[in-house]
Amino acid sequence: MSEEDRPSLVVILGDQLSPAMTSLSAADRDRDVVLMCEVEDETTYVGHHKQKIAFILSAMRHFAEELEDDGWTVDYIRLGDKDNTGSFTGEVERAIKRHEPDRILITDAGEYRVQEMIDGWTETFGIDVDCLPDKRFVCSKSEFEDWADGRKSLRMEYFYREMRKKTGLLMTKDNKPAGGEWNYDKENRKPADNDLFLPKRKRFDPDKITEEVIDMVADKFADNFGELDQFGWAVTRKDAEKAFQHFLKEAAADFGTYQDAMLEGQPFLWHSLISPYINVGLLDPLDVCKQVAEAYDDDKIPLNSAEGFIRQIIGWREFVRGVYWQEMPKYRERNAMRAQRDLPWFYWSGETDMACLKDAIGQTRDHAYAHHIQRLMITGTFALIYGVEPRQVHEWYLAVYIDAFEWVELPNTLGMSQFGDGGILGSKPYASSGAYIDRMSNYCENCAYDVKKRTEDDACPFNSLYWDFIARHEKTLKDNPRMGRIYSNWERMDEETQNALRKRAKDVIEGMG
Ligand code: FAD
Ligand code: DLZ
Ligand code: SF4
Fold this sequence. Notes:
Layout: E1 8-11, H1 22-25, E2 33-37, H2 40-44, H3 50-69, E3 73-77, H4 88-99, E4 103-107, H5 112-119, H6 121-125, E5 128-132, H7 141-148, H8 156-167, H9 208-220, H10 237-250, H11 252-255, H12 275-280, H13 285-297, H14 303-327, H15 346-349, H16 355-367, H17 372-386, H18 390-400, H19 406-417, H20 434-440, H21 461-472, H22 474-477, H23 484-492, H24 495-512
Parallel strand pairs: 1-2, 1-4, 2-3, 4-5
Helix pairs in contact: 3-9, 8-14, 13-14, 14-19, 16-17, 17-21, 18-19, 21-24
The structure holds flavin-adenine dinucleotide, ligand DLZ and iron/sulfur cluster (SF4).
């Protein structure tokens, strides 16, 4: 092969399923070869939910078809292929032998561990590796570093305002926030009840490709967490867009108002269910935000819903990515609260008498999905006040949710939900008693425990664990200005009550150990 005929090898990872990837834009479709590979390393670095593996592999296979239909040459390696080496590096090595490329073209990996691998390829293979930035984000890594540089603390709210200005989303002509406020969160805390009209989830029946992948996953990953029989995720760009349009029409208007609500047996409520599609590239984050802003301009969605939705994406999602790349690799090891307990087994089995946890874990098993408040205030808060080692909590979240990629999952879990980073991501721990869950859901109505009791044998475990957490961490948290009122309440309790709460917490912990 003459020098100028040598192709570039364009490596597309399983969360880069968009024709707009910078690696593809830099390539020549008539000359270059796209490599996509299903590899054992990626399917096993954590014990993924069965639906997560099925979703990613099916979406990869569909994307390979989309590229081929678009005129690309795709070298696609399946998990069961005879000579599959099981790793990205092994498959790139084999592909170099097959195609004799003059360089590798790739877009930055989402996860630190994979980026490290890519960074070693030039030396390993003696070939140029052009690793291009991932332009699917509003804020580049260096832009985030510049914003964070010199700040005493990083707060999402200030970062978010910059992103609003940068994108122009929900901004008036004179560069002011629509409606006069940046954030309408205080209007977004209404509990829901079953009498309300609940939007239905849009399901997509598995096609032949997805069925084949599901059968393979059922066979090869039989012992992994989760069920496959209710798989209804979109696996193509077209269907992901349909899912988003369904949300826009049926649920977006009430998204804000009921954003924090929880109802037993209702896993989806007014949520969009688009995180897996955005994270793997089937939907573009800025595009969905623009469509929501347009719906607000057309009076189809109220401001609290439009702003709440857009904040999650150009605010939180971008912010956690910035923190991840700024703080890795040490971030993963952080444990500011020195929590050491093992994750209770019921996180995997779902077998618990606590109605809130049973429901959140049960739907996670059935759908690989729980909405934000369930993740934060049920499974997250329980692990926090129980004192689970953050690494174990992180591994659970990374495994069980369909949208879980370390760059977004780790800061949310270790930082926001476990306060394991000591306050980089949030200003105080999301510790709370059963009262919050009682206010925001109907779980407590059918629970074996009594949310109003604190120390009796049938008292809600959240109540005593919460006060035990407050007492255990007095040294670390008492001076936090946002915790002052809580410590005053603790100190106002008589010693007998304090001891009874701590004794009940000890019994709860021993009963679960
Ligand atoms: P909606 O409620 O409809 O929100 C719209 C979109 O906003 C989401 O699709 C998502 O892209 C974005 N978003 C909302 N909140 C966040 C957030 N805190 N961080 C980043 N993006 C956000 N999200 C993931 O995408 N992957 C994860 O692995 C993940 N792990 C989490 C772990 C914990 C402990 C917590 C508390 C949150 C986690 N989140 C994660 C954030 C959030 O819970 C999910 O994005 C959301 O529940 C996905 O469902 P949805 O698409 O219906 O979201
Ligand atoms: C999550 C996942 C799984 C389960 N399997 C694959 C795979 O076989 N091939 C692949 O390219 N990607 C997979 N992924 C997604 C990757 O883990 C993800 O692309 C990286 O974490 C990005 O850094
Ligand atoms: Fe959860 Fe406690 Fe309510 Fe039971 S009583 S559902 S354990 S908060």
